[in-house]
Amino acid sequence: MVWNLLLRALWETLYMVGASLVLSALVGVPLGIVLVITEPRHIKPAPLIHKVLSTIINIGRSLPFIILLVAIIPFTRWLVGTSIGTTGAIVPLTVSAIPFVARVVETALLEIDRGVIEAAQAMGASTSQIITKVMIPEAVPGLILGLTMVAVNLIGYSAMAGAVGGGGLGDLSIRYGYQRFRGDIMFFTVVILVAIVQGLQSCGSWLAARLNRR
Amino acid sequence: MSQIMIELANVTKIFGQGEKRVVALDNVSLKIKKGEIFGIIGLSGAGKSTLIRCINKLEVPQAGTITIAGQEITRLKGKELRKTRRKIGMIFQHFNLLSSRTVYGNIAFPLEIAGVKRSEIKERVLSLIDLVGLSDKISAYPAELSGGQKQRVGIARALASNPEVLLCDEATSALDPETTKSILGLLQDVNQRFNLTIVLITHQMNVIKEICDTVAVIEDGRIVEQGPVVEVFARPRTPAARRFMKSVLPTEIPAEIQERALRMDDRKQGGKTVRISFVGDVAGEPVISSLIQKFQVDVNILYANLDYIKNTPFGSLIIDLMGENQKIEAAMEFLKDRGLELEVLNGGVEPTA
Question: A41 in contact with B at a CB cutoff of 8 Å?
Fold first, then answer.
């Protein structure tokens, strides 16, 4: 019984985190790239686009997740037809992670040696070739570490998603562990969460180190 | 050889605005011949880096035109600019290799972006790796290579698309003297093998001396002097070039000798301390012994320095000429007639250089 509860909650957490990580990366990575290349003196300087995008991202990041969660309920309902349940939780999780991903990608891409990009320009590479063949491959270790950080954050946020009936480990520990005084469930959810975060971070660090040729 | 490969006409580049305005290039005009190694030397901040970066339009000048092989690059944009850039190789001080790619991958990069077929890429890359002598490092990543090896990869990468021009941006400044020599040897080799026009900028005199045919001296964004290396180095015409040469060449007379020359002003017996500068064949002639025999003057050699620029000897000699004034004058005439540059360090005119 307890194990069934835990297993189900674990699956919900992984589903919410996994789906919102993928979705937020799909939007956030291109945003991060645009943010970088539109910088002054980068390959496609565009001060206005850069400024507007940067401001929007900052606004997105300044909203506490629990506020964002309820504030965008109409949007969530419009998008997926429901604002509750695991699927309903994925929307706010994704929305909150997009600006985070964008900043993480920006940081990773800015770490690349400008000289390498310049060399590619000198060789006649186009903007898209510079992005796909120079910037992203060169930034892979940084991108992996950054996305690991986003994933760990999403696990934390997913606990709050219980507030909209999203389920997951956080929700389980609140409803059973806290409200029903089930110390054992509280204990196990904490153990599982710690294990997931540890495992995730170790994998991310290991992979980043492995792929780092610098 | 006389065909012009690169021509810069009245190129001006200004950075910043208002009070922060810096004129990096001030009305620069240059003609670089096909197949020559053209050196641009200047102290840091002189504008040489901006100059070379204008040639492939990494920097866009505000005024002037740059023409490469008849094509005005300053007018090109987008696709055409990228196509033209493929014909201009470039190597860098810090190599700028892709750290995520192996030696093979780095050299293949320009071919990949040009859309060359995989089988052709392989053939070309392997022959280039062989050319630069890195056949045993084919799968190594840049982090596993020494500076000299990295620059060899840089050169192979720059040559991959069969360029007509190779731009070298301080290509040896991060290397030790021994490695510098081997890289310069490689550049000379590819210059001759492919009749490649090489433009290099540097602050290192040795680099120019070793391999350049023509040199331009740049100071405060202006070309102050240009011409054959031997001419410019041994007989700089403009004060700015002379000042520059002084700063990089050890032709400064040791203080001790200078003092001694001054002291000699007081002595009773007549005499002059003279600096003789020579270039080329005259260096091989026994001028001093002729001097002694023909004019019966005593010669005391205080300082001598001989150097080579691409097999042409040049140097300077500081001597005391002692004897009767008339004979000394005659001796000096004789030296001037042999094509030597004379400069009286005491007993007359104030030294100029």
Answer: no
